[in-house]
Design brief:
The complex is a heterodimer of chains A (904) and B (278). Chain A is an alpha/beta fold. In chain A, 50% of the residues lie in helices and 16% in strands. Chain B is an alpha/beta fold. Chain B has a ten-stranded mixed β-sheet, sandwiched between helices. Chain B is globular and about 65 Å long. The chains are: A alpha/beta (904), B alpha/beta (278).
Chain lengths: 904, 278
């Protein structure tokens, strides 16, 4: 054995020596010393500042700061013009900012929940030997070198090297995802640490036996600790929408503040008073910042998440709603996601070259023998036991009906043994006492002396008929079946019934093969077709055999039937690739990863992310948690998922169904398109809000809109219509387009030009035209100053505001579709849109003619004919926009193609 | 020759495992054991530990020259006088948490030894004594210095004997404010800069070591927090050691870079080796 190797390579006496321990364990003083050196055996990252830091971060991000600044502006406005409900608006904004920050904080705080779930895998108390005495100790106090006592049912508290093992069997599922038990030894082995069977890992459970072990790593240094470290430390990258919003908010704020300061300085140099300039600067900033847009984003995402819940997609993080729509690659599991995770015996094959059994009797015999080697119980809910055994009895019931006698006639059971790869039973089948074995072909083959032929004759085993059986088995495996061989022997003497399994397993006759499969979910092929049409790559990652993976992928339409095996990569091959080689393989078209371990999921995710692709990853196990957190979208299984996986994911599939992911993607894409629609809608009203201030500072004219009036639009009348656009149903074409390019910006030059320089300018000119019409009609002349409470000024500013509100109706309808007018496709189906239009109409009228609104907004009445002219703004803006759509429909195509791009 | 600065503690024993492994692979199979009698640990315990270590050396066929040094003005000064100026030797020392402090390297003897650099120095933080000084999977974060692999080579070649996998890592640090404005094209450009640098390092490594028995992997990340990226990558790859360079370029660099190294030393889930970079 390698004397210069690691702890697994050493013999037991050397293990003690290497870690400064002995069969009497560490002495207490030494243990305290070591504890001081390596710290507690805890998988939690000790960071007392994590929560305060996270809280501060949430309150200091640009989004929240902007909302707080907007609230501040409202309070200042209240101070300038008291009694105009600005205080209420200010508090509302303050509340939204607070809620946003706290909401984000609690989302980050979810890492704690992951930790709670992980903690369940470690014991609280352990038994150790210290100074020759056995002590019960807090698990946290374990140190490297401690001698630990293990017994059945214990959870392993740290990574340990066994020094004594008596029939010790552990379940490594939390770490490897493999639920089959593993037998451990204390002997030295010549393998890698993580693959050694003399090492037990923290978080795993002792299923059987007892033993003693030396602790080799504690806390975060254990393999389980590394998993816990990733679950806590991995930060989810900003979602595409978060990046877009951050970019937009910063750009708009930069423009607003720059314009505000520039014109403040211009005002100062042109001789206006400081107070006037300050009011002006604040106004131009308020006019430029779409204060209502940010809460509307949150509302739109919240409403979309509710819709997603109806489609079995539970969203635990709002940003994930849109991220799902931006997904370019989905890495999916097979079992339970593409398939039902319900095993079914769908093929019964004779040992020879014939494809099927010729008689029903032969089929029934094969199933009867298989059931004899199975162990199932009848419960109120049906049969329970190993899924394979349940599948066998269900098929037998389908074939022969009553099977109770078989269950009762089975005298002895030999449960499935991982190392032997088979299970067995002794009982009566078809009226004869038999010993039956079922299991892997390679486990059954050596014990065969006969092969049952179709004519009820038993052929003596020779190389030729064994090869025939092998060909049959391989052919079934290649078709994607999990193949179980069934063999039997007749028991002639009663004394034989008490023999050991080893003695019974001789002179066996091969009865045939069971082809077992996990049926594909009915919705999956259509969902995958939809993914292909939507330009989304789907990658299958499974622990199954490559042939099984390929078969499932072909049957559900993930790859073409003509696809070559080059699309498949095994875990061993993956292990040998570095990241750039993996990227190359993915670019060349590898779509199936078979025989992979859960830890390799992370490698695949990171490679895809390095390709700048938005990736969604499904997972259910404890060890899937890091990959779920590292992916842009972590999707956990609601039914079969562990608490740890669910706590790490942003999305939970209630029905574990792949088709639900695709439904979620459609919803996510719709959300982004709708967000774009209402961003465009909201920015249009910025035009007529900014222009009056520019004219006011450049020309001797009154200010057409006050700060309060701007806030009334941004935080009042525009909110419901924006939400209405956020509620628009999915565009039928949304899943016919490839995912949008990551280069695409929500706030791009096209949107700015359309919002500010086309529709915004149109609204500004029409509203300012009426503003000046009322002023001139009332006797105002250029250069004449008007007091803010002058009835003429109030009327003029009132009609300017009313015109903007009315024109926003035309803008609202036009925003529904990129090409068509917006009046088509059920305008009245969206009730929020109707409510939005009603609000605009009511306020445009009320602010002119209702005294309470006049008082709040500083407006006054105008002649009804003028109000009617303001209404003409609705068809004006609508038809102008429609004309643009018709004239520049080619440009619309180019806009669309700039949103989406085809993947390489 | 391998020079080991052993403080007489159990931690010193864990560090000594590395020294022993390295010495066993040296051409001269010599190890110089230095211990300063600073009185912090009972001298009898220290003696017993050192004797046991000498036995280990004997078993491994390594000649152990032991120097027990009286405490001079400081432990560092006592050590410095005993360390030969030899670019072919490698000095190994441990760096451990100081009582009531959160720093590991800052102000330690190991930091002083790294700074004086009388010969190549490897300061170790050992948290997995079960590895017995033979890490198989190594993470090497690189900061993009022009001098490339030369500084890490004296340490790397000694570790290479047992390595299965080496992961070269380049974290390109950007400002947090800039992060959201970074276009995919710019991100790709930055990544290419990192990849080019790592490709140069790989080429250099191939020159130093034409026959590699380990798998060489590399990755580039754009980040606002390189220590965090290093730590998560170490956990993700389940590496058994991080080999990290420290620099002496400027006070500001030491302040910011030093804080990152302390964070890695504090939170790493594997052993850490620190060498002095360019």
């Amino acid at each position: 054995m390698n004397e210069h190797g690691q702890i697994q390579n050493l013999t037991v006496d050397k293990v003690y020596h290497a870690l400064g321990s002995s069969a009497a364990g560490l002495d207490s003083v030494e243990a305290v010393d070591r504890l001081r050196e390596v710290g507690k055996n805890s998988v939690e990252i000790h960071d007392p500042w994590r929560i305060p830091r996270s809280l501060i971060h949430q309150f200091t991000n640009f989004f929240t700061l902007l909302l707080f600044a907007s609230a501040g502006i409202c309070f200042v406005a209240e101070y300038l013009q008291a009694g105009q409900s600005m205080m209420v608006l200010g508090w509302a904004l303050f509340g939204v900012a607070l809620l946003n920050a706290l909401f984000s904080f609690f989302q980050e705080y979810r890492a704690e929940r992951t930790m709670e779930s992980l903690r369940q895998f470690l014991p609280h108390m352990v038994e150790v030997v210290r100074g020759g005495r056995t002590l019960s100790l807090l698990s946290e106090e374990l140190v490297p070198g401690d001698l630990l006592i293990l017994k059945e049912g214990d959870r392993v508290p740290a990574d340990i090297r066994l020094v004594l093992a008596e029939d010790l069997v552990v379940n490594n599922a939390p770490l490897t995802g493999e639920s089959l038990p593993v037998s451990l030894t204390a002997e030295a082995v010549d393998s890698r640490l993580v693959e050694s069977n003399n090492i037990a890992f923290a978080g795993c459970q002792v299923l059987r036996g007892s033993g003693q072990a030396i602790v080799i790593a504690t806390g975060l240094r254990t393999e389980f600790g590394k998993l816990a470290h990733l679950s806590q430390a991995l930060r989810r990258p900003l979602s595409p929408l978060e990046r877009q919003i951050a970019h937009m908010v910063r750009t708009l704020t930069f423009i607003a503040v720059s314009l505000g300061i520039s014109f403040f300085l211009y005002g100062m140099f042109s001789g206006r008073s400081l107070w006037v300039n300050l009011v002006f600067m604040m106004g131009i900033i308020v006019a430029n910042v779409p204060e209502g847009l940010l809460p509307t984003f949150t509302l739109a995402l919240a409403m979309a998440s509710k819709r997603m819940a109806h489609r079995n997609v539970l969203v635990t993080s709002l940003s994930a709603v849109e991220s799902l729509g931006a997904v370019q690659v989905i890495c999916t599991d097979k079992t339970g996601t593409l398939t039902h995770n319900q095993l079914a015996v769908t093929r019964l094959a004779p040992p020879g070259l014939d494809a099927e059994f010729k008689t029903k009797k032969d089929r029934d015999l094969l199933l009867g023998l298989a059931l004899c080697a199975s162990q199932v119980r009848k419960t109120d809910e049906g049969y329970s036991g190993d899924p394979l055994d349940v599948a066998i009895i269900e098929r037998l019931i389908a074939e022969v009906g009553e099977t109770e006698h078989i269950l009762t006639d089975t005298q002895r059971h030999f449960p499935f043994d991982v190392e032997k790869k088979r299970a067995a039973g002794l009982g009566t089948v078809e009226g004869q006492l038999v010993f039956a074995v079922k299991g892997a072909w390679e486990a059954i083959r050596p014990m065969l002396t006969g092969i049952k032929s179709d004519d009820d004759i038993t052929l003596t085993v020779d190389q030729a008929n064994l090869d025939e059986a092998e060909i049959k088995m391989t052919a079934l495996a290649a078709q994607g079946f999990r193949v179980v061989a069934v063999a039997y022997r007749s028991i002639e003497s009663v004394s034989d019934t008490q023999s050991s399994q080893g003695q019974l397993e001789s002179e066996m006759i091969l009865a045939g093969f069971l082809g077992i499969e996990d049926p594909i979910r009915e919705e999956v092929p259509a969902a995958l077709t939809s993914c292909h049409a939507a330009g989304i790559k789907v990658i299958l990652i499974t622990g199954d055999h490559p042939d099984t993976a390929m078969s499932v992928a072909t049957r559900c339409g993930l790859v073409d039937r003509s696809a070559s095996t080059e699309l498949v990569m095994t875990g061993d091959m993956l292990e040998q690739l570095n990241e750039s080689e993996l990227v190359e393989a993915l670019t060349k078209g590898v779509r199936i990863f078979a025989r992979t371990s859960p830890s390799q999921k992370m490698k695949i995710v990171m490679a895809i992310k390095s390709m700048d692709q938005v990736v969604a990853m499904t997972g259910d196990g404890v060890n899937d948690a890091p990959a779920l957190k590292a992916a842009d979208i972590g999707i956990a299984m609601g039914r079969s998922g562990t608490d740890v996986a669910r706590a790490s994911a942003q999305i939970i599939l209630i029905d574990d169904n792949f088709a639900s992911i695709v439904a979620g993607i459609e919803e996510g894409r719709t959300v982004f398109l709708n967000i774009r629609k209402f961003t465009n809608y909201v920015l249009v009203s910025n035009g007529p809000e900014i222009l009056p201030y520019l004219i006011y500072i450049l020309l001797p004219v009154p200010l057409a809109l006050t700060v309060i009036q701007i806030l009334a639009i941004d935080l009042g009348t525009d909110i419901i219509p924006s939400m209405a656009l956020g509620q628009e149903p999915p565009d039928p074409e949304s899943m016919q387009q490839p995912p949008r390019s990551q280069d695409f910006r929500l706030l791009n030059p096209g949107l700015v030009v359309h919002s500010y320089l086309f529709l915004g300018l149109l609204e500004a000119m029409w509203s300012l035209g009426l503003f000046f019409y009322v002023l001139v009609d009332g006797g105002w002349q250029l250069g004449m100053e008007l007091a803010v409470d002058d009835p003429l000024y109030r009327s003029a500013t009132g009609i300017a505001l009313a015109t903007i509100l009315l024109m926003q109706i035309g803008n609202l309808v036009g925003r529904r579709y990129a090409k068509s007018s917006g009046l088509d496709f059920g305008l009245f189906r969206n009730r929020l849109m109707l409510a939005g239009i009603m609000i605009q109409v009511f306020f445009s009228w009320g602010l002119l003619y209702l005294p309470p609104l006049q008082k709040i907004l500083g407006t006054g009445p105008v002649n009804s004919s003028v109000y009617l002219i303001a209404w003409l703004g609705v068809p004006l803006i609508f038809s102008s926009d429609y004309l643009r759509k018709q004239l520049f429909s080619r440009n619309d195509e180019s806009i669309k193609s700039s949103i989406y791009h085809h993947l390489p | 020759m391998i020079i080991l600065a052993h403080d007489g503690s159990i931690y010193g024993d864990w560090v000594a495992r590395y020294a022993l492994q390295f010495a066993a692979d040296e051409a001269d199979r010599k190890l110089l054991l230095l211990n300063v009698l600073d009185g912090k640990i009972n001298p009898e315990i220290v003696e017993a530990r050192l004797d046991r270590f000498k036995e280990n050396c004997q078993e491994a066929g390594v000649e152990c020259l032991s120097h027990i040094l009286p405490l001079g003005k400081t432990v560092y000064r006592s050590l410095r006088q005993a360390i030969p100026f030899d670019p072919e030797s490698l000095l190994i020392c441990g760096t451990r948490v100081k009582p009531n402090k959160r720093s590991f390297l800052g102000g330690s003897v190991a930091e002083q030894l790294l700074r004086s650099h009388q010969c190549p120095v490897l300061a170790l933080r050992v948290v997995q004594p079960g590895l017995l000084g033979t890490p198989h999977d190594l993470l090497v974060p690189l900061a993009g210095h022009l001098r490339g692999f030369a500084r890490v080579w004296p340490v790397f070649r000694r570790l290479a004997t047992h390595l299965n996998k080496v992961h070269l890592f380049r974290a390109l640090t950007i400002n947090a404010l800039l992060q959201t404005h970074l276009t995919p094209t710019r991100r790709q450009t930055l990544r290419n800069i990192g990849r080019t640098h790592l490709a140069q390092i790989c080429a250099e490594l191939n020159e130093f070591m034409p026959l590699q028995h380990f798998l060489l992997d590399q990755s580039v990340t754009i980040t606002t927090d390189w220590p965090h990226e290093t730590l998560t990558l170490a956990s993700r790859l389940k590496v058994q050691m991080i080999l990290l360079g420290v620099s002496e370029r400027s006070l500001a660099h030491r302040l910011f870079h030093g804080a990152g190294i302390e964070k890695i030393l504090r939170e790493a889930t594997c052993d850490i080796g620190i060498y002095r970079g360019p």
